[in-house]
Every structure is written in structure tokens, then in C-alpha cells.
Amino acid sequence: MDRVRKKVGCDGFIAEQYGGRGVGIAVLDTGISPHIDLKGRVLTFVDMIGGSRTMYDDNGHGTHISGIICGSGADSLGKYRGIAPFAHLIVLKVLDQRGDGNTTDVLKGLDYVIRNKDRLGIRIVNISIGSIPKSNVKEKTRLIKGVEEAWDNGLCVVVAAGNNGPTPMSVTTPGISRKVITVGSGETGIPSGENGSRSFSGRGPTPYCIVKPEVIAPGVQIRSCAAAKDGYTVKSGSSMATAVASGCIALCMEKYPRLSNAEMKLRLYERCVRMDMPKNQQGWGMIHLHSLL
After folding, report:
1. Whole-number Å distance between alpha carbons of 270 and 288
2. 73 is in which domain, residue-wise?
3. Of 82, 112, 150, 213, which has fewest CB within 10 angstroms of its CB?
4. What is the distance between the alpha carbons of residues 217 and 219, in angstroms, rounded to a whole number?
5. Over the stretch 15-38, which tens digit does the pLDDT of each residue have?
6. Is 64 an active-site residue?
7. Positive/negative CA dihedral, 118, 123, 129, 133
8. Catalytic, out of 61, 64, 88, 288
């Protein structure tokens, strides 16, 4: 995680001064395991799939995402600490053990977040999931309306661009929404052991001719919490980049607690660093934490 902090411009001073204190982040994913790095981080766990009251993650993706956002690094003596290690999580399991789900469960999760955002201090919604925009258009429209309703209720919705690149118009739903902050991976290829070496991050424009993603963040070979009580695993994808972005936004919201979601989006626009990439691959550029704060 030290490598990730350097890539987003985070030095030791920022890491110690800000940690996302008081910022609640809703994670809609495959759940969360009771990993030692996540002890005390989870304020609420809601299982939209099986109704369990005990937190679990039968896939591992959600635990990895949660560790990137706010893992304490306890199992690695601080080496693999998350971006915002003092933020708190509201975890909603909306995907099953294969990482599959349906629009209804995601919408139920978003509805829970909207209804409980003030009580639980939720400021950010991390959605590191997506579907191909051309399939089942009616369901995709419902999903876009769901994330936009969350945005209209003042939540900063951060969504993955998907891993269907490098072709144009490959950003997944709900990342094609014009309102949400869509995040792509700042690296151009996945190592050969992870789906082959290719430029994987979803690219715009959207079917509505909107430039996407808005920003990019590190997303290749990110080491974070494994789906167990301890240990780490490495994963790559725009999902990981989205979690990095959510953590950075949490730090910014700690420093500037009155920032609205629209103001946060404008701040990203003004303070990202342009990379040597096409606009529809990088949007406004790489998140840079020094500039953001």
C-alpha cells in the first residue's frame, strides 16, 4: 500500500495527519470478512443476499476493497494500511459468492444507504461493480436511476469503470451515469497471471457522449486484505482503483467536512494530474492527494 500512497501523492505527513475520521463509507460488494485489519472499522453489516446478521465474505472481493479503503495494517505492522484507516464502513452484501448479483439487491442496498445516511454518518458510496451497458437496458436504466438518486441525496457516489477496455464505450453501468464519479485504473496492463497482459480499464465515451471515467487511480497488483481473519492477497482492476479513490475522498472530506458531493467532484477536476493517456481513458487525470488536500 506504500506504493499506492506514493502514486497518489501521499507522504507520511498526510498519512498521519488525516485518516478519514468521522467519514462513513458504504461499500456495496460481496460482503466483508472479520480480518484483523478491519477490526473496529465496520459500523454496520447488512446482507441483502442471505439475510445473515454475522458479517462474512464468501468471495473475497468486498474484503479486499474494504482493506484498500480503511484497513489498519495491523497484520503487516502498518505496511499494508488502507488509504483512510480511521474511516468507518457500512457494508452491504449485494453480490453472491461468484461475484454475481441482481439490480434489485443493489437498489435495496442503495435505498438502505439513503435512508440511514444521517444516522450512520455516510458520506461516500463505493460501488466497485458494474455490468455491460448494452445488455438488459431496462435493468441498467434502473441501476443508473438508483445511483443518481443517491447522488441527489448528497452522497458522493464513486463507481468503477469496469475491466472491459481498451475499446471505446466500454465503461460499465452504473459508471456511465453523468452524475457519479467514475474511476479507471491508472496502469495500462494486468500482469500475465491476471487475465493476460492487456489494457483493461473501461473507456468512454458513454452512449450519451459523456467523457468517462472522471479520474484514474492505481489499480494493478494492489495488495490488501484476504477473505480470512488475517493475511493479504493481490488483485487488479478498476475495482481496486475505485477503492483508492474513495479513500482519498474520505481524507479530503475529513479536512473539509462541509464539501458537498458536487464540490468534491469539482475539486477532483481542478486538482488531478494529467497523464500521457487519451482523455477517454484518464478523464481529468490521476488523483493527487497533496493537491486534493
Report:
1. 11
2. 2-287
3. 112
4. 6
5. 578 999 999 999 999 999 999 999
6. no
7. positive
8. 61
